[in-house]
Structures are given as C-alpha cells and as structure tokens.
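Researcher: We're teaching a course module on how sequence relates to structure. For the next exercise, students receive a sequence and then see the predicted structure as tokens, so they can try to spot secondary structure elements on their own. Here is the exercise chain.
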Amino acid sequence: MASQNLDQSLARALTFLFEESVAGHSSQCSGHHHHHEPDIHGYLQQADAWHQLQTLRALLCQRPAVPPLPFRVLEDAERIYNHLQSHRILVPTASIPALYQIPSDGPSSVKLSLWRGDITALDNVTAIVNAANSAMLGCFKPSHRCIDNVIHAAAGPRLRAECNRLMLRQGHPEPVGSAKVTPGYCAPTNFILHTVGPQLDPGQDPSDQDKQLLASCYKSCLDEAEDLPPLADGRLVVSFPCISTGVFCFPGRLAAQIAVDAVISWCKSHPETPVTNVIFDVFLEKDEEYYQKALGEALSAETVAKCEDEIPKTLPPANPILKTARNWISQADYLLITAGAGLSAAAGFDFTSQSLFRKHFPAFQSLGLRRLYDTFGWDAWPSKAHKWGFYFTQLQLARIWPASPLYASLLDLATSQFDGRFFVRTSNADGFFPANNGFPEERFSSPQGAFRYLQCLKSCRSDAYFRSKPYLDAALPFVDQNTGVLTDTSKIPVCEYCGGEVFLCVRAGNWFNERPFEEGEERYQDFLDQVEREGKTLAILELGVGMSTPGVIRWPNETLVRWGEGKVKLVRGGEQASGLVDFDLEAGGSAIGIEGNINDIVKGLRN
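Model: And here is the predicted structure for the students to work with:
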C-alpha cells in the first residue's frame, strides 16, 4: 500500500510541477509563438520510476523558492524522498577509521578522518557542510553535479524554502567565508552547514585574501557546529566536502592544504570544543590524493598525531531492507544472480576510474583518453599497432585481475544455500565469474559477449570467432611497456577465414556475432524452464545493472517478476538507478531496490 501511495504521490507532484512550468513558460511566450504542451499523463504511463524521479529532481532544482510549494505537493515530495532514503545503505561515521588526532590541552582530542564517497550517504553525523553560493538557495541547474545540488537533492524542497527564509531575514547575499546552519530535512544528517567559498576564474591564482577566506569557511562552520547538540553516543561529527574546488576553480591541491591547516588551527585555538570528529569527504580520486598528502605533511610537522583507536565493534543496526532481502533469498528454491558493470566496478575493474587508467594505460593518456569508458566507440588510434597494443593490454589486465572477495561471497551464497540450483547471467564481458572467481561455466551466460573471443567484423562465416588467448599470448612480448604500442605488426590479429579485420567479440555494433553465446543463453532458458516446470520459487539478485542497456538484464528480470505469479522476487542493488525498482513492483511485494555500495549490500545480505 505504501508503494502504491508513492506512485500516486509521484504522479501528483510531477503533474503539478509540469503544469506550473508550462504555465510559466506560456506567460513568457504569450503573443510570440505557439508552444507544444507536454503530455504529462502519457509520460507518467510510459516512463519508469527512475526517469520520473530524475524529472522530479530536475523540476524541483529549477523551481524558485517563491511561490512556496503547496503543502500537498511538498508532502508528496517528502514522502518520496524519505522512501528513497529508507532504501539506501548508509555509512555510519563510527565505521570510518580516525587516521589522526589533534593534540589538545582540553578534555579530548579532535579526530580527523578521510573518506571518499557521497557525503549524503553518511549516517550518524551531526552536520554535513554544503559549499553554497552567495544566494544560498542552491544550484538551479539540474545538470550540475556540484555538492550544492547533491545536498539539496537529498534534503528535499524544504531546504530551499528554509534557506530563502534565512536570506530574506538577512537582506543581503551571504558573505564569503561565513556559515549558516539549517536542519537536514530528508537527508540523513541532523544539520547542514552552508558556507560560501571564494570563486576564481579558470586558471586564476588565488590571492592571499582568497586563501584566508577559504580557511574562514572551515573555521566558521566549526564555530556554528559547536552550538549543535551531540549525537546519542556523545560524539559531535562534522563532515566537510572540498570547498571552492570544481566550478569555483580553486586549485585542489592548495585547497586541501588550506582545509587541513584551517581545521587544525581552529581546534588548537578551541581546546574545550565539543566537536569530536572531523571527516574530510572527497568524491574524486585526485582530491583523495591531495588530502592524503596534506594530512601526511601535518603528521611530519607534528601538528597531528596518529590515531590508534579501533573501529567500534558495535555499530548502528543495518538497514531493515537488507533483512527483507535476506529472507527472500533464503526462502527461495532457486537463485538467479544477474550483474552489470557496477559489479565489476565494485571489484575494482571500473571503466570510469581515472586512477585505474593512469596505472595500467599511462601511455594512452596522450591520446586524450582518461578512462576505459572513453574508448567505447572511439577509433581515432594513430595506427593499428596503437589500437591492438591497447586492447591486448586490456585483455591481459582482465585475465590477471585477482580473485575478488565480493565474487567469493556471491559464490559462497550460491553454493552453500542453493547447491546446483543457481544460475549467473551478466552483461559484463570481462569473464570474472567463471574465469577469475570459480563460478561453474555450465551455470553461466554472458549474452553481451566475452573478452575470451575475437570475431570477424564482416562475420564472413557464422563460426568466424576465435579464442583470444593464443593471440594475446603471442602479442604480449611485443607490447612496448613505455609506449603501449604493439611493436610487431604481424601479431595484429586477422580473421582466420577471410583475412579481414577482427575485434573483441562484444556487442559494440550490429556486426556482433552472438553464436559463441547461444549455448549459454540456452542453458539460461533451461534453468528458467526447470523452475517453472517444478513450480518452485526464484529469487533474482541483480547487482550493478543501470540504464545503459536495460533490455539485456534489467527489463527481462522485471518481466520475470511480473509474470511470476508471486513466485519470483527481485532484489536489485547498486548505486543510483541500479538500486531502484518501480514502485508498482515494490507495492506488489515482489521487488525491492537497495541503493548503495555493492560491497556493502552483499556484505549485508550475507551477515
């Protein structure tokens, strides 16, 4: 019933916001030209929950604080936001180890931590800090992935209304370097501290005043935090993002140094402070490296000391949604594990990671490539020797990628609880399930292709596909370790039948040869037929499957649930879209979405 109400709440909120937006647009365009009004009812019938939620967030992001939202719409929006928060796997701040402590003459030392992740995923935190602009009303551009947008999206529309109230009372823009405090509303934090950092032009060097103002941001936030009530466990925890970096163009390395120095300086001048913990939260790999360096320099200068505290053994209870998911899986007769790119990323093989690319493909950065994902559909290689030097390096990296505790946990789940009553189906081509982590080949299908095969791009014959291993073994000694180029062009693979060009056998174009994977898909269908024939129940565990190719894994899983007559249940886990199910499926008691880090989700399902 609750999820049915969510469908209604989402429809009402979207309808109001659409109609309001169209009315505003119509008044602006009156007398100029005709405009096409969107078919909101058609949209609600066709769009899935994820796209509707993205639209809701975009419309709320663009909407000014005045006039205020009608109470019913505000109530609907908050019902949706609170539901989404209830399905997130949050990170208790008590589980984040304190790396350093600031020596103090007071009753206790403030502990410093460094954590990389979404600041709105922190649980048991007194206050998170928002890097705001001087208007203090949030960012009005939905496409901006700034911290201002992230925090307002988590807190919901009441946050903008409260910020507007504070600014009306103040009567002027927020000064750079100061701070204000608001409730956290729907975000999993008690309070939000808003501060405005100095803004530079791209490439501009910060002045001494800019540096002082940035330091003042951190100190002003801590000033405000001192007056906030502590958590139930007695701690007072403040988490800072990277202030003024990103669109405000402050150099990241210097910003990290200023942040660390400012916090240390403030704590030393406030020995009696009730603040117990400061967490530097970063989102980008490079920022994590900057903070590691800044904290290391503080340790060398003896302004901080190493913290030897252990992570508390007793942490807040896990999200109840995990218990429901565990029960569904443990009570099922059969298990289907399905996976997308998010699972490989959670095991470290992340196609969006710049650090992975820098480490394993450094020579190819000169071509403008920064991530493995950048090579999708990219064919501006200087030569075939460059192209195959890259792809042979990628194939070797996937082949030697170490066995993962994450996959081991999934294998243990499948074998210990389901013996021979499980199957794995993935859109990933890396082969990690059978080749690297011991899953049985006879219970595996990868319909999108596999790195273990090369294929003729012309598909000159239906069987024009070949094992990549012999070609890889022959080529590796000739891949230059400095340039990444294949130095012996005779090792460039060609079709064994027609002599034409070959490529990885993956679904990257209409030339894809599905034949090597037909047997796996037949085994998958046999598995489903067996479940149906025996009248048994099936649990589907879907991990890291987003909206890139939903027709391969995501939508077929939903079809199984809808046609399963209550005997098929879906547990969907991952970040963003990968952790969301349509509200009608959830209302039927047949599907749940869990949003969060896949490692944490699987750990929660096993414990």
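Model: If you want an answer key for the exercise: The radius of gyration is 27 Å. The mean pLDDT is 94.
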